[in-house]
# Entry
Amino acid sequence: MSRIDQARKGYLGKNIRDTNKAHSKSVIHQSLHKEKHITSFNLPEIILGGQDGLVNVLGVILGVAAATSSSQIVIVAGLAATFAESISMAAVAYTSKLAEADYYQSELEREAWEIQNVPDGEREEIRALYENYGFKGKTLNEIVNKITSDKQIWLKVMMEQELKLEETDRKQAFPSAFIVGISSLIGSIILLIPFFFFYIQSAIFISIIASAIVLFSVGYYKAKVTIGRSFIKNGIEMMLIGIISALVGYVIGNFLKV
# Structure
């Protein structure tokens, strides 16, 4: 468990002991160089892949099911949509991570060049930044002088404080893509299972119920590990958004029914 996860656990449970552990001097300094926010179990990637795969494929399944009485056609269409969606989502996650890393690197190089070639302007940006935080006079001058006395620290402050950019590791592109793709695949496959064992009308009903349960559970869990409240509200919101989006496919399928 990361330091941030431990701190979040302490806050959500209002447990001072866990919170103090997360704020001990040794733990803070050990984790500072690698600490990330909201990376618990790759939650964003899991939600992105699972929800997107489930909702999109459910829309396809309902649309096809409304237009035909053949479970076989629904299964074939669903499987095609499942694998296409999973691969597409994984590819998007992969290229997005690479784009984030490339953008960070380009901005890092730009800021380093500006510090080297227009130091007065960059120094004034540091001054304005900390002046905006409420520092004035001698204290402000000391902060500016201290930061700009070391170009590495100066560059780090510009990236994190001015540009609000966090370094993205290109090596995380593949793991991120894998998690998104697998989550999308699992979310989609869940919906197809009923069509292998039940008649089409029963399978449609079971798929919708299963989707509602999964979406509610994801929304509930997300609220539990991130904000620590409004569990049911967030679960219902995610469930309604997902089901309504998917039902659009069912409506279209009814209009095109053959």
